[in-house]
Amino acid sequence: MDPHRSTAHDRAREGLASPDRVWPFEDFWSRVCDAIGIDQVGIDPKTSLRAELEFDSLHMAELVVFMDELGCELPEDLIPILETAGDVYDHYVTRITAQAPRGAP
User: Fold this and answer.
1) What would the CATH number be for the domain defined by 17-98?
2) Nearest to 86, CA basis, from 14, 22, 11, 28
3) What is the per-residue pLDDT across 54-82, written as a single tens digit (0 to 9) for each?
4) Radius of gyration, alpha carbons of the chain
């Protein structure tokens, strides 16, 4: 393993998400948890990032890196309004599906 490459990079590349392959909620959060080093136990869409998962600024930075490596930019101004695991997943789905090729008009 390259010591200069992040774990998030490895997880993002393994089974890379694409517009035609959106990971289910559980798979997405399993990868997030592995990448940022938190337990996945009991995470559902209503799970609070800060209160229940105890996300701090480092976790959020690692989440931003993970999302960027998936091709899902997580804008800095969006970070404060992401309150739940479902909010993060919804952003992921929206960004991934927005990358899907559009049919001819």
Assistant:
1) 1.10.1200.10
2) 28
3) 999 999 999 999 999 998 999 989 999 99
4) 14
